[in-house]
Amino acid sequence: MEGKDVQSFPFFGVERRGAPVQAYTRIDDKPIRVKTNIYSPDCVVVLDPSLLKSQNITVGLKEGGYLLINTEKKPEELAIAFKGNMATVDATEIALRLGLGSKTAPIVNTAILGAFAKLTGLVKLDSITTAISQSVPSKPEANAAAAKEAFEKVRIRRMAA
Amino acid sequence: MTKVVMTGNYAQSYASKLARAQVVAAYPITPQTSIVEKIADFVASGEMETQYIKVESEHSAMQACISAAALGARSYTATSSQGLLLMHELLFWAAGQRAPIVMGIINRAVAPPWSIWTDHTDSMAQRDTGWIQYYCESNQEVLDTVLQAYKVAENPEIRLPAMVMEDAFYLSHTIEAVDVPPQGDVDAYIPLKRSPWLLDLEKPTRMGSFMGPDIYMEYRYLVAKAMEDSKKVIVEADEEYGRRFGRSYGGLLPTYRCDDADVVLLTIGTASCTAMEVVDELRKEGKKVGLARMRVFRPFPGEEIAKLASSVRAIGVVDRSWGFGHRGTMFTEVAGSIYRAKSRPLMKDYITGVGGRDITPQVLRDIYLDLLKAREGGDEMEWWGLRRPEKEVNRNA
Amino acid sequence: MKTYKTYADLPGAPIADVPTQEESTAGWRTSRPVLDPKNCSKCYICWKFCPDTAISVNDEGWPTIRYEHCKGCGICAAECPKECIVMEREV
User: Fold this and answer.
1) Which residue of C has its CA nearest to B393?
2) B274 → chain A, closest CA residue
3) C31-35 and C85-89 as β-strands: parallel, antiparallel, unpaired?
4) Interface touch A104/C29, C-beta < 8 Å
């Protein structure tokens, strides 16, 4: 939409429910030719805060990069050693309140996209809300609203480590 | 042209829809299943008119396609790994019967151990069946190549089935922006060309019946000849596609910065586009490297390889499939073609990326540097990245 | 679970080093079945239907769920004719 090239794909550990899943995305102004896993990301987004207990989510994350976590806590309340731009947003609460997904499995990714736009500036909020309205399978307005709300509510801190 | 973000799997689905496949045989296997699921969506919504046959195994899927082809219908199916292996005996039949089937293959490693990740052993193991084999490096290429494959397969001089390969996950589940050509333009590019050898209720006959030693060889030769003749047709189909749709892929063996290259890597699948980044980096550092991509493995581009070999000092072949008992599958055939080259370059076989092990830019960079250092050797094979015990590692240093 | 450093450490054939009984798949599930014996008629339909043989029968004849292997599919709860089994959300 903004004239950039994009590539995105998942990396499953095992084909089963409940296993941590990684997804990789590349955004570039030029055509993207590399098609491999991402080992040193510029940005890490954590959708499930329970992963903070079992995974080292900052492995490979570049210094000065971006870390976005779905949690009600503030960045300084999480004990994560990271030098860069950290942000938190309670996407779960937004999703539950707006009725996205189910009570036990809320869909947080649209809200997170709004927070991502604010944190990184890599993509405009308008592009995100337009894309969401055009492509989500249900509740386009609620999903777009979730993105907008997360954009406004996300807490960003420059962490010195 | 509409640009749609889609996975490599959906690129196959869209292509079969544009090609107006009349029969689709569907059987699921990770990581191919979403291809046939998307086609089911197209059929349910009325966007695609096709006989969607849910078969009980991949063997039946191929049989359904062969039967459809015997009645003159354009058919499509897709599979991977174990499913492709299950179809093996019928692949010979499809080619021998001259059925112009197009099949999407999502390259997935072969068990045991059980793996869902990518390598090319599954389709490499089918290289003797008489099928034309394309290996793609982007979702756009997948969509375009399926259409090209129909053109080649149905060409009256050729009439051979074709497989269009893509790497599991790195293409099948990777979302990229793809231009979807307009239906009318695709219809003009690949109008259905019925085979002259059909099973017809009005004129009943038999196909594939018992034939003695006095004529079997000649029938097999016809397949070999068609395969040889297809080289020209594949290149023409690609060039015509370029004229009509603005995209073409360099025929059988596209090359990148090989003209003044000292060493060249020969890659296949998505490792190729990653390698282009590495070539650019190394060139900036003053190293004269180039890349050749095996886009079409059957028919084998022997002349193109021989020509390339005559102009470089060393060729490294990056096989993403293993070779047991000899060298990697691609290397062995490349080495055979080099025999007739005017001058023979140094050669080395790098087996890597097997079972889905990632071929990162660093891996390719290290392989290039290894090849640049090489001063002698003809058929060394190295399983690059293999976890070796200490005492073996030091031996290589 | 053993970690293998090099090919020389591998057994040769791809055989698992942990017996199946010792490998817990409890982490796979999002809800767990809970059986209330009050109305249970010991028909053993749950035992028959469990695809993972995670339900066994104890010495008193009551169906017992082995939670180390239960993957939470919910088939036992769906099949119990007396509705003795309820799926409770764990995650």
Assistant:
1) C6
2) A34
3) antiparallel
4) no
Mean pLDDT, range C5-21, rounded to an integer: 87
Going by C-beta distance under 8 Å and a sequence separation of 6 or more, which residues neighbour residue B182? B1
**CATH (one of 3.40.50.920, 3.40.1360.10, 3.30.160.20, 3.30.70.940) for B255-396:** 3.40.50.920
Q: By CA distance, what is B390's nearest residue in C?
A: C6
Same fold, B2-245 and B255-396: yes
Which residues of chain A lie closer than 8 angstroms to B359, CB-CB? 36
- Strand C31-35 relative to strand B380-383, pairing: unpaired
pLDDT reading at A15 higher than 70: no
In a domain, A54, yes or no: yes
pLDDT at B326: 87
Q: Does domain C33-91 have CATH number 1.10.1740.10?
A: no
Q: pLDDT > 90: what percent of chain A?
A: 39
How many domains are contained in chain A?
1
Q: Side by side, which strands form the sheet with B132-135?
A: B51-54, B23-26, B75-79, B102-107, B162-167, B132-135, B296-298
Structural domain contains residue A161: no
CB B274 within 8 A of CB B307: no
Residue A30 at interface with chain B, using a CB cutoff of 8 Å: no
Q: Which of B175, B274, B276 sits opposite A36 (nearest CB)?
A: B274
Residue numbers in chain B where pLDDT is lower than 70: 1, 377, 393-397
Q: Which residue from A59, C1, C10 is spatially nearest to B386, judged by alpha carbons? A: C10
For the stretch B242-288, pLDDT in tens is 999 999 999 999 999 999 999 999 999 999 999 999 999 999 999 99
What does pTM read for this prediction?
A: 0.88
pLDDT (0 to 100) of residue C1: 53
Contact state of B387 with C6 under an 8 Å Cβ cutoff: yes
Structural domain boundaries enclosing A36: 5-156
CATH number at residue A10: 3.40.920.10
CATH number of B2-245: 3.40.50.970
